[in-house]
Amino acid sequence: MSKISENSIYIYNSLKGEKELFKAVSAPNLGIYVCGPTVYSNVHLGNCRTFLSFDMVVRYFKFLGYKVRYVRNITDAGHLVDDAEEGEDKIAKKARLEQLEPMEIVQQYTVDFHNVMRQFNALPPSIEPTATGHIVEQIEMIQEIIDKGLAYESNGSVYFDVRKYITEGGAYGELSGRNIDELQQGTRTLDGQSEKKDNVDFALWKKASPEHIMHWPSPWSIGFPGWHLECSVMGTKYLGKQFDIHGGGMDLKFPHHECEIAQGKAANDVAPVNYWMHGNMLTLNGQRMSKSTGNTLLPEELFSGNNNLLDKAFSPTVVRFFMLQAHYRSILDFSNDALLASEKGYKKLMIAFDILQKTEFKATVLNQELDTEINQLCDKCYTEMNDDFNTPKTIAVLFDLVTKINIFQESKTFGSIAPETFTKLKETFCGMISDVFGLESEAEGNSEVLDSSLNLLLEMRQNAKQERNFELADEIRNKLTAIGVQIKDGKDGTTYSL
What we know:
Blueprint: E1 10-13, E2 18-21, E3 29-34, H1 45-64, E4 67-72, H2 90-98, H3 102-119, H4 135-147, E5 151-154, E6 157-160, H5 162-167, H6 180-186, E7 202-207, E8 216-217, E9 222-225, H7 227-239, E10 243-249, H8 253-268, E11 273-279, E12 282-284, E13 287-288, H9 299-304, H10 316-324, E14 332-333, H11 336-358, H12 368-386, H13 391-407, H14 419-436, H15 447-466, H16 470-482, E15 486-490, E16 493-497
Parallel strand pairs: 3-4, 3-10, 10-11, 12-14
Antiparallel strand pairs: 1-2, 5-6, 6-7, 7-9, 8-9, 12-13, 15-16
Helix pairs in contact: 1-14, 2-3, 4-7, 7-8, 10-11, 11-13, 11-14, 12-13, 12-14, 15-16
């Protein structure tokens, strides 16, 4: 059942610098574009945080009943080393170093990215376009911007005319808060900048040097598209000239997203995006994780425990839960101790999740106070999520619900609350954990085998007790306890919990 009308979501819009009430362009349809990876190396944990943050956002909108078209691109060309206007393409450079074709590099690291996202239980995007698959559309958008007098060709390259854009009413710097004089002072002098009318102008198309191995024909030269242009084209093609949400890491605000806004307005005479969302960084040793500095941690190192920063291996779902415990706009510092704490909290949540899933509703005497408390806590989950997707506060409310759920563990019935409250509790608690947060039971794949095995041992113990072989019965109990299985004898038989 759709919950759209019941929920008012406030999103921190980076463009305005404040939270705004979310209104979809065409509810219940909703368009989200997230800048995907540049596939020239293995995706690191800092990259994963951004993608998992927006996976949570997409999941929550879907949970509320929105029909989400989620577009996340693959950058497989045009992204130059150090995000500069001149230099070598990141993928081409890696291909040259490894003596491979550029598309071999693209394929290798795209597969790695997909595998990691699958391990983290991230939803695949509705559409995953590639930059190289949209060269024709990029050439068309460049021509539109030229025709409007906001771009110019110089020596086979095409540049966006930033000062002309500002003169005609554009607000270059509106997202990042930078003004053009500061930008001009901070612009480095690079080879090829003499082609530009102004140092602050940015490339829409670059003429390829003879050694540049990734290039395509265009009306201006044999060359390649500018990195910023790719996302403008793919966002517009699949979500329209103006769509709901554009997401990415905080580091993409400038110049990437700033340039996207200028390109979109120049080509289509309308602001391309209504809400700009930016996730913050994951730090390691107090420094931002970055491929360029080598200060990175690969997901596989966490899953295997093969890193001297770790005491043990951690499952993908525990790492995902660790990231959810910080707000997507806050800096999150990685540590082994933080992961250990997250693992304990995750297990506590999943025990309650399992209890709620397996316990049947049987009407008993209504406890009005408990019924009211559970209703209020369920409502609070939505209140916190509607406040700019505040996952840490939502998780705190879920732990309050764990306390309530544990009340029912002995009786194995939720009858002291109203049946509609039980339904609401189950939908909210299990929905937030599974559907919104994407958390899975670590033993989910083997749960049936585990359940059958433990029930067999409990049956053996029961037979031993009936045969008055109490020594064997106690031995089974003690060995199960030693490996973390708690068993309880009740009037209705023996049950276990992990």
